[in-house]
Inverse folding.
């Protein structure tokens, strides 16, 4: 691997995990009270739970697209957004966060091992590099919303 390629891969992995100028999901959720997960009192369209689930579903979909030519994406937008404002219980919350972490690490392994510039054969011009940038951009956008909601709830640092 050339040093330029290694620099790009390492910087994008840092971006995916929430490094440098981006706060990661774990930091954005650190100290979040359980009762605030489904709070919609701030009159924004989504609760923190709905944003977390949307991140989970979207990232899972992008990962599966990269791995499986037969993958069927959820129906947009209905199946990308949970209807419930709050998780069913603590286990649902923890399971969602675990899947986000696990899927991200699986994507990162793929990103480290494969040609990041090669078009995904069953796609329309997508590559692992494009999917990595999309995951990072999408997740950071919604992390920002989580932070805004937490600030409006007065429970963020």
């Amino acid at each position: 691997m050339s040093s330029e390629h290694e620099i790009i891969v390492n910087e994008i992995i840092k971006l995916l995990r929430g490094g440098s100028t981006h706060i990661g999901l774990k930091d954005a959720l650190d100290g979040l009270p359980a009762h605030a997960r489904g709070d919609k009192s701030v009159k924004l369209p989504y609760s923190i739970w709905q944003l977390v689930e949307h991140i989970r579903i979207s990232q899972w979909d992008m990962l599966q697209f990269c791995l499986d030519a037969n993958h069927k994406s959820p129906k947009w937008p209905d199946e990308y957004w949970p209807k419930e404002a709050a998780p069913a219980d603590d286990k649902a919350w923890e399971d969602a966060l675990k899947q986000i972490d696990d899927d991200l690490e699986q994507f990162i392994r793929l990103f480290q091992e494969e040609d990041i510039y090669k078009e995904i054969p069953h796609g329309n011009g997508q590559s692992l590099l494009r999917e990595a940038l999309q995951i990072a951009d999408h997740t950071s956008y919604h992390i920002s919303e989580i932070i805004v909601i937490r600030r409006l709830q007065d429970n963020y640092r």
